Amino acid sequence: MRRLILLRHAKSAYPDGVSDHERPLAPRGQRDVPTMGKEMARRGLQPDHVVVSTAKRTRETFALIEPYLGRHTSHYERAVYEAPIDAILRVIYGIGPEVSTLMLIGHNPGLERTASYLVEGGGTVATPLADKFPTAGLVVIDFDIEQWSEVKAHRGRLALFLTPKLLRKLPDHTVP
Fold first, then answer.
1. Does residue 118 fall inside a structural domain?
2. What is d(CA 170, CA 175) in angstroms, rounded to the nearest whole number?
3. Rounded distance, CA 5 to CA 34, Å?
4. Average pLDDT taken over every residue of the chain
5. What is the pLDDT of residues 63-111, one digit of tens each?
6. Residue 58 within a domain
7. Distance between CA atoms of residues 162 and 114, nearest Å
8. Could you read off the pLDDT of 20-45 as tens digits, one per residue?
9. Which residues of 47-74 are buried (b: 16+ CB within 10 A; e: fewer)?
10. In this structure, what CATH number is given to the domain that contains residue 107?
11. Helices (H) and strands (E) in the chain, counts
């Protein structure tokens, strides 16, 4: 069994004169990440390894969520920055067998397309994921495989889809 956690970076700012790669998180993004981190910790979503895009907004998202992740290793990967599905899959395929739970922190549209590609039923899945993968959105996909290289289209089971907005709607943060 392998578990893939995809986290889209939190809401970013658009300061004048700053390149896309160097855009920082907006105040809302800085507030949303700890909320998601606390919920991940509450649910026991603890990655063995985290791959983070090199963009500033993803590095800042990682810095804010890392205290909630438990023991893990991590690395930054330029290939995840604004990556299409095939680039994200190459990163996943390169993960060693010692990693049971992998987390990727990246961008749309790549993460949304990758999630839809990997989940059973693809983009036709009747879930909120079929509509939108918002900033700081989290998708958990489980695979009945031995190696990351065995990840294939529509073979994953959508175990969880969470957003900061969904968590804010519920008074005790109890999400199905």
1. no
2. 7
3. 16
4. 91
5. 999 999 999 999 999 999 989 999 999 999 999 999 999 999 999 999 9
6. yes
7. 16
8. 999 999 999 999 999 999 999 999 99
9. bbbbbbbebbbbbbbbebbbebbeeeee
10. 3.40.50.1240
11. 5, 6
